[in-house]
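Usage example:
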Amino acid sequence: MTLEAFKTSSPLTMGVELELQLVNPTDFDLAAAATDMLHLLARKPFPGDVKPEITESMIEIATDVHTRHDELLEQLRQMRDALVMAGDRLNVAICGGGTHPFQRWFDQRIFAKPRFRELSELYGYLAKQFTVFGQHVHIGCGSADEGLYLLHALNRYLPHFIALSASSPFSQGVDTLFDSARLNSVFAFPLSGRAPFLLQWNEFERNYFAKMEATGVVKSMKDFYWDIRPKPEYGTIELRVCDTPLSVERAAALASYLQALCRMLLQRQEPPPAEDDYLVYNYNRFQACRFGLDGAIVHPKTNENRSLREDILATLRHLTPHAAALDSQPALDELYAVAVHAGNHAGFLRRQYSEQGGVAGVVDAAVRSFRNGRST
Amino acid sequence: MAASLNLILVEIAWPAALALAWVAGEFGRRWLGLPRISSYAIAGFLMASSQGGFLSQPSGEAMVLLTNVALALILFELGYRINLGWLRANPWLGATSVIEAAGTFAVVFFIARIFGQAPIPALLLAALAVPTSPAAVLRVVNELRGSGQVTERTLHLSAFNCVFAVVAFKAVVGYAMLTGNGGVFTAVWNSVVVVLVSAGLGTLFGAAVPGLLRITGGLTHHTTVAFALAVLLLTALTDAFKFSPILAALAFGLVARHRRVLLSQAQRNFGALGDLLTVLLFVFIASTLDWRQVVAGIELGAAVLVARLLVKTGTTTLFARISGLSWRKGALTGVALMPLSVFSMMLLEQTRHLDAKLVANLPGVAAMMLLLNVLGPLATQWALRRAGEAQPGREG
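Running the assembly step on the lines above writes:
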């Protein structure tokens, strides 16, 4: 099987996928309830797409293709309400968050579907440890080459998305001291990390994908777990570093931030991406995972050391005209508040831990945040 | 010398029986795939003196209190897992519960009458057939690490039908006393007052203990021991005053949960303490059964067993779709509700002091208990596996 052709789509369209946790409302542990939820949801038309994920305690929702923030948010809210209502009927609670704070990976049940069984056999305990929950944002690209350009031009902004979305400070019952412990699980996979620095699609196909395929290591793009990867069948690039936020409101804001950034990058007024940009890539990514908004990053072009928070605030200000053109200023305002005073969801969860006295209280708070859309 | 040796043998009989039952449980699981509690029951039955075994009929107060505590711990945990808010969000679940319990009561009464039972014993048998053994269900669920709709609904329906059973049983006892020679006061006392005070005591504990824990700030570390001690105290208290320890424990768990002090994962089953008391509970209950009574009531017992299974499965299947479940999982929920025994036996045991004649040798009960002691957990295990809700690699 060769790489399928990159289907073009309208530039700057966006779509959101959210991996959500299914939780038992009694002990707040993960509940193997995906089959039951999907059965009930299948009876009525669902306002979007909903499908199983690798373990029985996850469920994935996906929006349609959107151009506007308010419409994206509206659809996410409708999906949220449908899920919450179904969960109530089945005594299942639903929440965001990049990790479940105290689930034990060996207790997770793999969803009965051939691909998931294969993955589970290949990766062994990694597959179950991969019970982590991410937000994926797709941005439509006018051409494959435009997609590759965006993918690499975004390298410098990647830590922004990690720090703003981080919602996984707890793992296996303890505070990991990371704002996003989830990404540490993702990095364990052999084909994770950055995409190779190739800016032409035919070159990518011939000099990279075909060679990788010949090694037998990969069969399709699905086998790559890159931070940003091209998705040829949709004609999009897919940003995969975000933790699932605690609210759909935050998820919509993050997608709109990416949309505005891409609009700016496509005007090509910034210096073009280069292989050397990736020298500081892993360092910056670590800073964002570990310290969130308090991280310190190195600018790949100038080697200047700066606070991640400052960098985000500067970028948000810089994006004002683009947000105006896309009519998405409310989304950027929400992220502005996060960076200035409210903090990310990892901070919120840590406060819940100390106030409610334990990891179960953390999940309780996450469930309420998802249901009410408030998380500060 | 011979006398003292005999005394020693009597002293070690129970610990030896528990050890043997535990071994039987492990081998039964490995070789036959039996849930452990089924093996405990078979072992307890075979070791009892009425079957020619070495276990003398235990009449000691200590033994009864211990089994009461064992069951109370289980009922506390069950109560803690019940979400009353679910009934609000899904009223059809409540409807399933009421119809399933009332249907079982009516059909079993009818069958007992056909078998020529007098009205009062028939009513008592009907009340005893209503509950699903919470001990068996919770045990199997925890051993398989079950999770899903069949698991959740089985636990909830079990808790509800236990409450219905206690109320119905006490009402029948009250009615029997009223029509007998007990007088109005004893009748009311032994039905209405016992039910209300037991539930009230449990509620009081449910409100006070979490409050106490919150003040002491031991929310994350000491909850298991604190709750176990509270259950012990509550059981001793209700037992001493002849109230219902099982109803009190269930109410305690229910209220404690809705007051939200969080039990962590590790404390399911009350850990090793719960495991140990479960062996005791199932061996003790099965050892009180006499094969002669089993044989004498085998036809009635078997008829009740089949009718009970049909009513419960029929109801859960009928209400499956409307309550948000597939037909298949609805039917499996009914099958999972099959276990009976420990709860009903303790209900009987706790009434013995009132009127030994009334509850002694209720026809059909012994046969029903023995059959369901073994078959019930097996049915629950089968249903959870078929529903795909058991953790693979976990044997029951």
